[in-house]
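Protein of interest.
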Amino acid sequence: MKKLITLFVLALSLTGCAAVMKALPTIAAVISDAQQTLEIVDVGVQEWIRRTDPPEEQRARYAKIRQNAYRALSLATRGVRGIQDMDQEQYDTAFKEFRESYGEMKDFLDETGAMRSGALSSSGEAEALPEPLAMSHTVD
């Protein structure tokens, strides 16, 4: 019976791994899109910082939010690169953490005036705040 249970668990594990393996190219594209989005937002925020000279606590808060978003993407990237074995739940957790950080970033930008009416207002001309694919992606 113990062997049967072991084989069953192994089969389930391999099935989950196969699903994740099949999804790796999509996961990599979603991660890349999210990283590019963070870079676009950061360019706007850095311009806003230069233009408005906000208090140090706002700068530190933004840096922490940004760091958390990149940390979540870093975990998913480690799985895609094969540095760390990850299953579907771990990828979903990484993307959930990214979504939370990005949502916090949007709230911060809105609260501080770096974003107005859903657009970055770094140089007087508003640019629409990008919505990364990771905001709705789950590993299937």
